[in-house]
Amino acid sequence: MKVDFTRWLPAIAKDSYRKTALSVAGVAALGGLALAPTAAAAPVTSGPHQGAVAAIDLATGKAATSARQEDQPVESGLTTGSATGKPPAGKPSRDQLIPHGIEGAQSRVPLDDAQLANARAIVDAAKKTGVGDRGAVIGVATSLQESKLYNLGHLGAYNDHDSQGLFQQRPSSGWGTPDQITDPEYAATAFFTALKNIGGWQDLPLTTAAQTVQVSAYPYAYAQWEEQAADIVQQLW
To answer: How far apart are CA 158 and CA 138, in angstroms?
Structure first.
């Protein structure tokens, strides 16, 4: 995230405790944001910026391929869900999770234990902040695009400015201290607090809601993760 959005979010007070509750005074200014991404948008198959790809490679030792390569479905016991038929008891339905339908080609990645644990932290934060299962889908899809659900620390020359964590949030833009934004609970709570202050976010397409919070150089790239994010949320909810 290269755009400085301090004009929308006030600085989050530094705290010595990694799991301190998020306090964002005046965050309601987000409600005045435009409800659509910038007109000059990258196509849905645009991948993360090269810095993020290199960071994921370095942090995980795995190849972080482009979104175009990831268009081929990946079978994984941790990413499949109930795309058809009745959902398991107590789980949200497909219509609840994807109320507006998917946009464009979908991508998938297999999940390891670390990614699944981070996805669970996002889902738990969605419950605590009251954004519900649909908000959880937006959060998981956003993290899939930003970090492939890896909690990335600062990686020196590979870093995109000072972006870190599951959502590649920036301390210099008021998201919190490095320790805070690399705490999955804090980072997800910060994301959902900003999301809740976007007027009518529940009625927006996923990529629009995510982009209004993230201000990404690839505003349409979040859409490609909606189906896998829904599968993950349905399993973890």
So the answer is: 26
Q: Are 164 and 154 contacting, i.e. CB atoms less than 8 angstroms apart?
A: yes
Residue 60 has what pLDDT? Answer: 52
HEC profile of the chain: CCCCCCCCCCCCCCCCCCCCCCCCCCHHHHHHCCCCCCCCCCCCCCCCCHHHHHHHHHHHCCCCCCCCHHHCCCCCCCCCCCCCCCCCCCCCCHHHHCCCCCCCCCCCCCCCHHHHHHHHHHHHHHHHHCCHHHHHHHHHHHHHHHHCCCCCCCCHHHCCCCCECCCCECHHHCCCCHHHHCCHHHHHHHHHHHHHCCCCHHHCCHHHHHHHHHCCCCCCHHHHHHHHHHHHHHHHC
Q: 34-64: per-residue pLDDT in tens? A: 222 222 222 233 344 455 555 555 555 554 4
What gap in Å lies between CA 179 and CA 182, rounded to an integer? 5
Q: Which residues of 94-131 are buried (b: 16+ CB within 10 A; e: fewer)?
A: bebbbeeebbeebbbbebeeebbebbebbbbbbeebeb
Instruction: Sort residue 85 into left (φ over 0), alpha (ψ -120 to 50) or beta.
Output: left
Neighbours of 88 (CB within 10 A): 12
